[in-house]
Amino acid sequence: MPDLIQKTETIANDFIVKQLIKEGPVTRIYLCTFEGIESVMRLDRPMAGQLGLNRAVEYDLLESIQFHGLSPQPLYSDPDEGILVCRYIKGKTLNQADIHQTPMLIEVARITRSIHKLEPVSGILKLTHFLNHYEAQLSDHRLSPFLRSGMDLFAELSPETTALKLCHNDLNHSNFVSGNNLFILDWEYASLNDPYFDLATVIGYHQLSDSKIEEFINHYSQNSESIDIKKLDQWRQLTDYLCIFWLMMLEKYATMSGKEKAWMIDLERRLSKKKG
Prior knowledge:
The structure is a single chain. The protein is α+β, with helices and mostly antiparallel strands. The chain folds into 2 domains: 2-87, 2-Layer Sandwich (Phosphorylase Kinase, domain 1); 92-275, Alpha-Beta Complex (Aminoglycoside 3'-phosphotransferase, Chain: A, domain 2), CATH 3.90.1200. The chain is 46% helix and 18% strand. The protein is built from 10 helices and 10 strands. Strands 1-2-3-5-4 form a 5-stranded antiparallel sheet, covered by helices on one side. Strands 6-8-9 form a 3-stranded antiparallel sheet, covered by helices on one side. It has a two-stranded antiparallel ribbon with strand order 7-10. A hairpin with a 4-residue loop joins β4 (74-78) and β5. α7 packs across α9. The relative contact order is 0.13.
């Protein structure tokens, strides 16, 4: 608590921290009020400094997309202290089963397409930045052979002629909140990227069946664009590499839960099988 008080003492006087509502290896989330507005504060933990994030650009991005109603409204940011305050979104955080329901899957397809049409803000990073950062940080990790394989696959999938778009890069169900409309949380990994990455994340993370994949792709493309299924499968593999890179960072700089350890073992098994 003393550390929390010290970090937040520079925020406006009309700021009250109510309670901790979520804690992870990278951040803590607090329910609070900011200038009378019900809000949430994200406070970075030490590991956040190891991930190559740009908190200032993240705030600019959130401000720039407010007109589109895709994300919570940012109210305050102090990148040096690792603080971000956003308006609280009243609604239901989605679960795995929600994504499999046709109406919600259609809405996720629509909002994914909307993200890829947004104009990126100045200073937005490319996915290459995160990959290079992981590679530099993890060269001595016991699973470092996966780094080379992942980087090689990314190079194969991302020729210089690829038209990069703004991508969220973490479209899993826990980052969707259904309120007055569907909102997306946690834009910290947003970057310029190939849209296939977001499509692959939705499909792979939620283990969509073939029929649901077809449904999702058709509503994303609105039957006006062709999606290369082989390429999509390769991007699904790349999302697995990014997940294991993140878990490797977690293993190196923080404490892994039993669930995260099991996830890493599963990814290691799957990727080893692909390499074989």
